[in-house]
Write a structure and sequence with these properties.
single chain; UDP-N-acetylmuramoyl-L-alanine:D-glutamate ligase; 10-stranded mixed sheet; 4-stranded mixed sheet; 14 strands
Amino acid sequence: MNVLCVTLHPAIDKAVRVKRLVPDEISRATVAMVYGGGKGNNVARALTRLKVSAIATGYQGGYSGKFITEELRKEGIRTEFVECKADTRTSILIQEDDTGYTYAVYEPGQKVEDVEIEALMDKFVSLLPETSLVLLCGSGQTDALARVYNRLITVAKHLGVHSLIDSSGTALDYGIEALPYMVKVNQHELGFYLGRTLDTLEKQIEAILELQKMGITYVALSRGPQGMIGTDGKDVWSGNVSVERVINTVGCGDSLLAGVAKALLENAVLPDLIRWGIACGTANTQVRGAGFLELDTVHSLVEKAKIIQIT
């Protein structure tokens, strides 16, 4: 069976390196990587490297969409995209060699027509019989697209397939309303949803418990370098793993999601969901690009991860 990864706003990710950005001066860049991006596509890449069968779906349009589709296929990812009229966007990731800083410049996600939304619904339903887990990844940048995750979760629940959402803004609001099996958020996304600042661990624990009590089985909150916390309503666990150096932060949340998905497929308990999540998220810091995990690194970090029960 497969993990179905949905991306409403894919992108060509173009990573470039410069010595340093200087205002009003020309910066000579070296192109480091060009690959098929978008959160769900990054997750599908990471899952494939974890030896989990993944299907990438969502939208692709124009030459850029064809490029992404072909690149994902070369990586062994099955693609089941809906073609849309609008071109798939390009995202520019700039790394300064002098400072190590990374800047992400994202074009707006493509708009889609009503008929294209219904085409995605049909595609989604057709894929569910061979799907073990649905991952809904990234934003929906129009009102119509923001509501799509709610519809997908509802359909999947009706057919007995668990959904996990990793989104933000209005799309997250509508997604939570449908009560998916699991919600994965970061501090700022959950704080925005609840309308308050979550600047301490105590506030974050209170927030994930509040969300879980709505009827969501698992809630996980990624905390960047501080790792991750999660709850099943009975207990709250935290996890972290340290590395000597970080060479990349782009796509760490997507790789974390892939690790959680792998553990869910294996019916792991909550501590192991966190263990695999932080191991994969941290493994992403050791490579360039989003989701280009090295399996040996993941296994090493799984062993090193520190998992603690908080409540």
